[in-house]
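Thread: sanity check for a docking pose with zinc ion

Original post by kr_44:
Hi all, I'm comparing my docking run against an independent structure prediction. Below are the sequence and the ligand SMILES. Could someone generate the full complex and paste the structure tokens? I mainly care about where the ligand ends up relative to the chain.
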Amino acid sequence: MANNLRRIWDADPDAAPKERQSFSDDVVGRFRSGRLVKMGGRETPEALNEWRVTTGDPVVAAKISERMGGTVEEWDTEKEDNLQVLTDAPTVRIIIDPDGVDASFKQFVPGAGLTHHCDGFEYLSPDEDRGTACGCPSLIAERKLAADKQRGPKPSVDITFRLEEATELGRFRFNSGSWKLVEALGPLFAELDNYPGQAVRASLTIENVSYVPQKGPRAGQTISYNKPVVKVFGAYAEAADDLPAAA
Ligand SMILES: [Zn+2]
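Reply from moderator J.T.:
Ran it for you. Here is the predicted complex with zinc ion included:
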């Protein structure tokens, strides 16, 4: 991972960027904040208020159902994680290993595939372009605007973690394209930097935000959306008594 990945997240300009390595793909399941539902023959994305967990391992699925609610069922996928649990839990306590949070920007163009893959400043791939300036705007708001017009890449944030109450299950992944999560990455990386080389206790939450705009085309209407939120509580090695109670 290029050093300057962190430049764009920096809420604190004094925070020195550190090298972050990408993670192996060896996960037992995925946390998802949405799903595709068939509506009138078309698949439409649906945001969820509680975590949906997918896995290919029946033991993992059963454990998730036991701890987080919901029943184990099969779902329609060609991937290995053919079991899903629609849990009752909007929040889960997790342990994030060092380098467990990773982010990049990607643009896929139909027919052409991955046309832009960068850290926000420099290309990460293909190899021949790696390290050269990619031309993305420096402000996140401008990036979002470009991506909305399909003239720039979208974020891809990966969080790899274990469950605090079932570490033996192995590692899970949550991948998100949320710009709200991207905006929160600066403070999150700054907090993780307080625990160099250490695993941290944290929570991962689907948070609902609603508000009524005063101006604009939707003035007076309630606007509601979900965003993933990561809260860091402290180093994993700390005594459990020192930690705040689960949210
Ligand atoms: Zn770029």
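The pocket of zinc ion is lined by residues 105, 116, 118, 134, 136, 153 (CB under 6 Å). Hope that helps with the comparison, let us know if your pose agrees.
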